[in-house]
Amino acid sequence: MLDHARGNIVEPPSNASVVAWNKWKNGEIKTKKIIWDSIDKHLVAYISDLKTSKEIYDRLVSLFKVHDANQVFFRRNKLREIKKGKDESMQAYFLRITKIKNDLLSIGETITDREMALTTLGGLPFE
Predict the structure, then answer these.
(1) Measuring CA to CA, which residue among 108, 106, 17, 1 is closest to residue 54?
(2) Measured distance CA(77)–CA(83) in Å, rounded
């Protein structure tokens, strides 16, 4: 499936056999399903207009590719400074933290369980 996503398996020419077309089409369908099932739902808006698995793969790679240290710094700083909102539910707070963590993981950063626990507790209000 990764060959489909990376564009190594291309759409057959119009004069190709039905077998070749079906094989390519089934591979595309499976690859797109795997990608759609694997991503966070907030990313769907970024890929919903794309047709091929290669287009989807390329878009997702470009979204999370680290172009410079500023991107790492920005995401780390966002995680470090996170605070639970006064009217925010715990579930919403945990989802925000998880999203930032997933963003960092997707660009190759490692985050320890200890760091996540301290960040989560540090963002809770003292009442």
Answers:
(1) 1
(2) 12
- The domain in which residue 108 lies consists of 69-122
pLDDT band at 67 (very low <50, low <70, confident <90, very high): low
This prediction has a pTM of: 0.52
Q: Residue 71 to residues 8, 62, 67, 79: CA-CA distances in angstroms?
A: 30, 13, 7, 12
Q: How many domains does the chain have?
A: 2
Kindly state whether residues 49 and 82 are assigned to the same domain: no
What's the CA gap between 78 and 71, in Å, rounded? 11
Element spanning 38, H or E: helix 18-38
**Mean pLDDT on 67-95:** 89
